[in-house]
Amino acid sequence: MSMGNKLLNIHAPRFAVAFVMMMMMVPKFVRAQSSVADIVTPEFFNGIIDQADASCAGKNFYSRDAFLNALNSYNQFGSLDSLDDSKREIAAAFAHFTHETGHFCYIEEIDGASKDYCDETNTEYPCAPNKGYYGRGPIQLSWNFNYGPAGKSNDFDGLNAPETVANDPVVSFKTALWYWMQFVRPVLSQGFGATIRAINGQLECDGANSNTVQARVNYYTQYCSQLGVAPGDNLTC
Question: What is the pTM of this model?
Answer without folding.
Answer: 0.85
